[in-house]
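Run log, item B.
One chain of 278 residues. Sequence copied directly from the ordering sheet:
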Amino acid sequence: MEFAVYKVRAHNSSTASENRMHSDDVARSFGFQGGLVPGVTVFGYMTRPVVARHGAAWLARGTAGVSFSRPAYEGEWLTVADAGEGPDGDASLVCTNEAGVELARMQAGMPSDPAETDPRAGIAPASPTGERPEATWELMVVGEPFPALDWRPTAEDNAAWCNDVSDDLPLYREGNSPFLHPGLVLRQANFVLRNRFLLPAWIHVGSRIAFREALRAGTAYEVRAVPEEKWLRKGHEFVRLYVAIRAGERVVAEILHTAIFRPRRADVERKAAADERR
């Protein structure tokens, strides 16, 4: 049974974000045509057909792995469509823009026998310092935990997010403690990174998330993160974080979150090339 095709108009609700990659002027200095629609927003769009089919069961024990190959821009019509079965047997979905260019691909599963919780979920977070230095290669230390992020989502927070991603599924709005939208959950991996560092302009390139129970509005959560790897590629500085979302002693979601935390600047490259030609 294929997922129904889902069409949605992209909206960049983060133009005023601290991450200036969502603003037109800064994004253009890095070689993009305008401010980038956040990756967690595109992920949110891609979960719509999955949750429409599987409902709360997927929110309680589903998995998803998403990778972004091209950015989405404000106002574009995006299409999320079934792409058959992935290499590990999970369902595969693809997100394309109006020109038919692939922007993102996602594998979604619902394992009957979930993997054991990663031991890193139990690593004690660093003590908060009240300071957020700008992220650098030297300060992004593999294996060094971040301070924890306290997250207390309300039904109003959830509804606002659903409105931003144009998701009208009723289960996100029903009752006093509705199910949290998976895009809002994944967004906390961005926030725990921002809780540790200043990041003037950065890019989310992919994530894998596993739900261990359904998250709901009105519950207090703690978001922990530990860098597991960093690397250089084509002038970009990448990091992959292990992120655990906890409700008390229970681990309710685990995320591997990959980002370019220091992108190569296109305008600097162009100036250097011009200087060389003089």
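Observations after the first pass:
- The CA atoms of residues 41 and 165 lie 6 Å apart.
- The mean pLDDT is 93.
Flagged for discussion on Thursday.
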